[in-house]
Amino acid sequence: MDDFILRALLGGLAVALVAGPLGSFMVWRRMAYFGDTLAHSALLGVALGFIIGISVNLTVIVLCVSLAMLLVVLQRQRRLASDTLLGILAHSALSLGLVAISFLEGVRIDLMAYLFGDILAVSWNDLWWIFAGGLVALMLLLVLWRPLLAVTVHEDLARVEGVRVSLVSIGFMLLIALVIAVAMKVVGILLITSLMIIPAAAARRLSSTPEQMALLAAVIGSLAVAGGVWGSLEWDTPTGPSIVVAAAVLFAVIFALPGMGALKRVVARR
Amino acid sequence: MFEFLKKPQPTDGLQGRLLEARGIGLELSGRRILRDVDMTVEPGRITTIIGPNGAGKTTLLRILLGLQAPTEGRLLRRPGLRIGYMPQRIVVDEVMPITVQRFLALGGRAPRDELRRVLGEVGVSHLLEQPVQSVSGGEMQRILLARALLRRPHLLALDEPAQGVDVSGQGEVFQLIAALRDRYGCGVVMVSHELHLVMEAADSVVCLNQHVCCTGRPEAVSQDPAYLRLFGHSIPPGVAVYTHHHDHRHDLHGDVVKDVAPDREEC
C-alpha cells in the first residue's frame, strides 16, 4: 500500500473513532446545527492563525470555543429563535473567514482543502496532531461520559444529584471544538458535522444502550472512512465528500434493512 | 452558567434541620411568584406543600432544591445533604437508546442486584431491562422514585408523586412514600394537590398561595380558617379542588378583593 493511503486511512480512522461517540451526543442533544455552526467558524480560525502566525489548530479551537460561549449568551434572549441565531453566526463566521483570507498577502491557502478536506495530503506531522488531539478528546469524553449522559437525559435531575451542569456543558463544547480542529484536515470544515451525525444516526437503530450507540457509531464511521478512501482511489473522486457519501449509503442501508428486531436482540445480548 | 463559582450557601442556625427557607421571595420579569415564604424540612418527617394551581408550589420546591435562585430571602441547607429528586414528569426522547437499568445507574453506580431490589421496593422490578420509553406514566414515576432511593438520600423531594396515577392508586402511592420514609429514615418534602390523601400521609403541611397561608400539623391546618377559605369546607377529595381556580386575590368566597398584592391576613 502506498504511504499516503496508509496515512489517509490512519488519520480518517482516528477521526471516526472520536467523531462517533461525540456525534451520538450531538444527536441526543439535538445539536447538529450547533456543531455545524462551530465548524463553519473554523475557517475564520484558520485565517487568524495565519495572521497571527501561530498554529492554525490552536486558533481554530480558541475561535470555536469563543463562538460557543457567545451562542450560549445569545440564546438567553428570547426574541430570536436558536436556529435563527445559529444561521446568522454560521454564515457570518464562514464569510468573515473567506474575507479575512482574501486579505492575507503573500500566503497561499488551499481553500478547497480546508473546506472539503484533503485527507490524501495528510502528512506524518498532521497525523501526530490528529492522534494526540483525538486521544485527548477521547479521554475528556470518557471523564465526562456519565455526567454528560445524566445531563442529556434530564438536566434538573442531574443537577439535584450533584452534577456540575455548567462545567459539563463547557467541557462538551470544548470537545466539539477540539474534534473540529482535529477533523478539519480529513473531511473539511463544511463536512465535519456529517461525520459526527450520520454514523450516530445510523447506529441508533441497532442500539439499545447509549454505549452501544456510541461504539457502533465509531465502527460505522470507520467503515465510511475506509469505503470513502477506497472509492475515491477507485473512481478518482474527491476523498472527503466520498467518505460522507459512504456514510450516507451505510445509513440508508441500515435504515432500509427489514426485520431489524432480530439483529437488535443479538446486539443487545452482548 | 457560572453558578459553580458562587460561594456556598450559609448554613448557620439549622439546628438539625435539612433545609430552611427564610423569607424566600421570587419575582420573574415583574411578576410576583412567591413572597416571604418561611418553611423548614426536618429529617424523618414528611412535609407537604399544598395549594391551588398557580400557587407556586413547584417553584418553591425548585428553590428548595437549588434549581431556581430566589430573588429575596435565604435558603439554608445542611452541608453534604444528599437529595433524591422525583420531578413531575419525564419524557426521555426516543433518539436516546436507554434501558431502565441504565437510566437508574445515571444517578450513581450500583450493582445490578441493588437496582433490582430497589425497583422491587417500588413494585416495578419486571421493568429492569425495558427501554425507558416503553413504560407507562405511572411506572415512570416509580422508576424515578427508585432512582431517588438508590442514592440513599437524606431528603426525598417529590413533585406531584401521584400524578398520572388513577384515583384508586393514589392512596397506595402515599402509603408507599410513608413506608419508604420509615425504611430509609429520610426526610420527605413533596408537592401535591391531592388534599385528603396528602393530609393523611403528612407530618406537617404548608398551605401555599404565593405566600404561606397557614402551616402546621395536618389536623390543625385542615381546621385553619385560611385553609378553609382556600379550599372550601367539605370539598370532595381529589380533582374537585381544580374547579376553584383561585388566584392570589382570594376572591373565592364572594368578596372581590381589589387588585392588591396578597398578604398574610387576607388568605
UniProtKB/TrEMBL annotation, chain A:
What's the protein's topology in the membrane?
Answer: Multi-pass membrane protein
| GO BP terms in the entry | response to zinc ion; transmembrane transport; zinc ion transport
Q: Which UniProt keywords apply?
A: Cell inner membrane, Cell membrane, Ion transport, Membrane, Transmembrane, Transmembrane helix, Transport, Zinc, Zinc transport
Q: Locate the transmembrane regions by residue number.
A: 48-73, 85-107, 127-145, 165-183, 189-206, 213-231, 243-263
InterPro entries given in the database record: ABC_BtuC-like, ABC_TroCD
Where it mainly occurs, coarsely classed, is membrane
What is a single cellular component term in the Gene Ontology annotation? Answer: ATP-binding cassette (ABC) transporter complex
- Family indicated by similarity: Belongs to the ABC-3 integral membrane protein family.
What function does the entry list? Involved in the high-affinity zinc uptake transport system.
UniProt protein name: High-affinity zinc uptake system membrane protein ZnuB
UniProt source species: Ectothiorhodospira marina
Automatic annotation (TrEMBL), chain B:
Q: Does the keyword ATP-binding apply?
A: yes
Keywords of the record, alphabetical order, are: ATP-binding, Cell membrane, Ion transport, Membrane, Nucleotide-binding, Translocase, Transport, Zinc, Zinc transport
Q: What is this protein called?
A: Zinc transport system ATP-binding protein
The UniProt entry, under Gene3D superfamilies, shows:
P-loop containing nucleotide triphosphate hydrolases
Q: GO:BP terms for this protein?
A: response to zinc ion; zinc ion transport
All copies of the ABC transporter domain together span 19-234
Q: What InterPro entries does this protein's entry cite?
A: AAA+_ATPase, ABC_transporter-like_ATP-bd, ABC_transporter-like_CS, Metal_Ion_Import_ABC, P-loop_NTPase
**Keyword hit for ATP-binding:** yes
Give this protein's Gene Ontology molecular function annotations: ATP binding; ATP hydrolysis activity
Q: Which Pfam families match?
A: ABC_tran
